[in-house]
């Protein structure tokens, strides 16, 4: 692989999306990302000022949600991500009552898979669309047969090569384990052996997939029942945005995540410098000060505002870190 000189974070953030896409291609990662939308209804109320009692609330909410979805997806693809997974509906979403199904769930799925705006978007970016999850469960509990337009969008985008977008529907990890077992048993009956890891992925997702490189979600620092099964965990880095990711996710945010993933973390995790105790050129006093300042800090704590839980920042930075994107360290003599 061609040797690449690491830019500083300051330099990286100033690069264009095309330049960063070239770096992603050169580094060979990330290959697969997961984007978990969260807090979308709250964002519509708090950020956009929509009244939940307004008779047009659901229509406005769906429109703004899908517009932001498209912008978020466009950001990630423009910066070189080849495959994106968006689990949008868990099993319980289909048990939220007829009003939710009629006013929100069905309009979202219908527009994602049949509207001219989204079909043109898939075509413009040469996106191959795949839908995974328990579609039969979704049809039964949702009292709607949307299987035809799912099949149609997958067929119509099957020859798209540049990018892949996987939508997860009825894709709760805790529920899907049983269906994965059934898929494995059926495979055994047909082939006289159990599927290997690659075959398990293809059976479940309908296509081959690498392990997930990053997962982005909002607010609560915790795992999700919508984490894609089989491929999440082994090499996945988790990033938590402070507020709803549909409104807080920007090119600048994604650039920061990409720098952390393919530059900052690779320097330590990829090269295992921890095990080698490679501290050459570092000012140990800066590291000691960071340890001292944060010996009682906890990542993941929050506070309540009414019924809302919001994360709080406990991290304290040494003076050498302040007013600079990267820490100042003394050069070795």
Descriptive notes:
The chain is α/β, with parallel strands linked by helices. The protein folds into two domains: 262 residues, 3-Layer(aba) Sandwich (Undecaprenyl pyrophosphate synthetase), CATH 3.40.1180; 42 residues, no CATH class. Helices cover 47% and strands 13% of the residues. It has 14 helices and eight strands. Strands 3-4-2-1-5-6 form a six-stranded parallel β-sheet. It has a two-stranded antiparallel ribbon with strand order 7-8. A hairpin with a 2-residue loop joins β7 and β8. α2 packs parallel to α12 and α4 packs parallel to α5. It is globular, with a radius of gyration of 22 Å. The protein starts with 8 loop residues before the first helix and ends in a 22-residue tail after the last strand. The C terminus is likely disordered.
What share of the residues lie within helices? 40-55%
Instruction: Give the beta-strand count.
Output: 8
Point out poorly predicted stretches: 328-333
Radius of gyration of CA atoms, rounded to a whole number: 22 Å
Do you know the CATH topology of the largest domain? Undecaprenyl pyrophosphate synthetase
| Tally of contiguous helical segments | 14
Mean pLDDT: 86
CATH class wording of the largest domain: Alpha Beta
Q: Give the biggest beta sheet.
A: 6 strands, parallel
Structural category is alpha/beta
Topology of helices and strands:
Layout: H1 9-13, H2 17-27, E1 32-35, H3 40-46, H4 57-78, E2 83-89, H5 98-114, H6 116-124, E3 127-132, H7 135-142, H8 147-156, E4 163-169, H9 173-191, H10 197-205, E5 214-218, E6 237-241, H11 245-248, H12 251-270, H13 273-276, H14 284-293, E7 302-305, E8 308-311
Parallel strand pairs: 1-2, 1-5, 2-4, 3-4, 5-6
Antiparallel strand pairs: 7-8
Helix pairs in contact: 2-12, 4-5, 5-6
């Amino acid at each position: 692989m061609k040797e690449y000189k690491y830019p500083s974070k300051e330099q990286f953030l100033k690069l264009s999306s095309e330049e960063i896409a070239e770096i992603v291609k050169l580094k060979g990662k990330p290959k697969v990302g997961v984007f978990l939308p969260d807090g979308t209804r709250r964002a519509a109320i708090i950020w956009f000022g929509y009244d939940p009692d307004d008779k047009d609330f659901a229509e406005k909410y769906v429109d703004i949600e899908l517009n932001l979805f498209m912008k978020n997806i466009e950001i990630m693809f423009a910066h070189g991500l080849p495959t994106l997974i968006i689990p949008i509906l868990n099993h319980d979403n289909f048990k939220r009552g007829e009003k939710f199904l009629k006013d929100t769930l069905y309009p979202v799925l219908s527009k994602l898979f049949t509207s001219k705006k989204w079909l043109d978007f898939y075509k413009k970016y040469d996106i191959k669309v795949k839908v995974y999850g328990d579609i039969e469960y979704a049809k039964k509990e949702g009292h709607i047969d949307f299987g035809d337009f799912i099949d149609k969008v997958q067929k119509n985008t099957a020859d798209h090569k540049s990018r892949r977008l996987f939508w997860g529907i009825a894709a709760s990890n805790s529920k899907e384990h049983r269906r994965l077992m059934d898929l494995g048993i059926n495979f055994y009956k047909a082939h006289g052996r159990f599927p290997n890891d690659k075959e398990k992925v293809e059976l479940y997702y309908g296509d081959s997939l690498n392990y997930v490189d990053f997962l982005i979600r909002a607010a609560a620092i915790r795992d999700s029942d919508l984490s894609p099964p089989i491929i999440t965990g082994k090499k996945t880095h988790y990033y938590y945005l402070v507020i709803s990711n549909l409104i807080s996710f920007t090119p600048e945010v994604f650039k920061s995540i990409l720098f952390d993933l393919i530059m900052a973390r690779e320097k330590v995790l990829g090269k295992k410098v921890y095990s080698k105790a490679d501290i050459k050129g570092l000012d140990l006093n800066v590291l000691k000060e960071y340890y001292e300042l944060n010996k009682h800090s906890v990542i993941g704590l929050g506070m309540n505002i009414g019924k809302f839980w919001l994360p709080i920042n406990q991290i304290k930075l040494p003076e050498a870190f302040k007013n600079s994107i990267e820490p100042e360290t003394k050069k070795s003599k």
